[in-house]
Specification:
190 residues; mainly alpha; Hypothetical Protein Ta1238, Chain: A; 6 helices; 2 strands; 3% strand; transferase; ATP-binding
Amino acid sequence: RAPRIYTRTGDSGFSSTFTGERRPKGDRIFEALGATDELSSAIGLAGEFSSEKGHTFVDQLHKVQCMLQDVGSNIATPLSSAREAHLKRTSFGEQPVLELEQWIDSYSEQLPPLRAFILPSGGRSSAALHFSRAVCRRAERCVVPLVQAGEADPNVAKYLNRLSDYLFVLARYAAMKEGKEEKIYIKPKP
């Protein structure tokens, strides 16, 4: 018999952190976890569109989704209530941030210079990556207060900050590789 997906433990509006602490579902930890989960879903959608076009960066997007699971583990382990065993399992280092920087540099070198504000556009792959970038910025805004309060590792916020840059560059790269036009901002005439 398969285990049930529902537990009923959250029916009263509370949920548990990895440390076992019960907090209201509106707690900023769960806001950050939800935004991070939504980000992974948006990246999954962008990855599917990009896979249909044969983009080689799809494996990187999958790696990012796996890394977001680690981001979530760190967020779900508030430092104020974590024991050493928790911290060991959910630590988040700087290496993933450095890897994103390498990817950003690699794609940036192949792109034409940016001369105007770009609107989310450039085909389905590119637009989905731009959407992912916007969700990433929201996730970052949810995580920064946790880092500032000493509840999450600063590298988690750095990772999300760099990830939004990566998604922006990747959106431009996808548009270029697909031969799609990036729409630019044009100031409306009064």
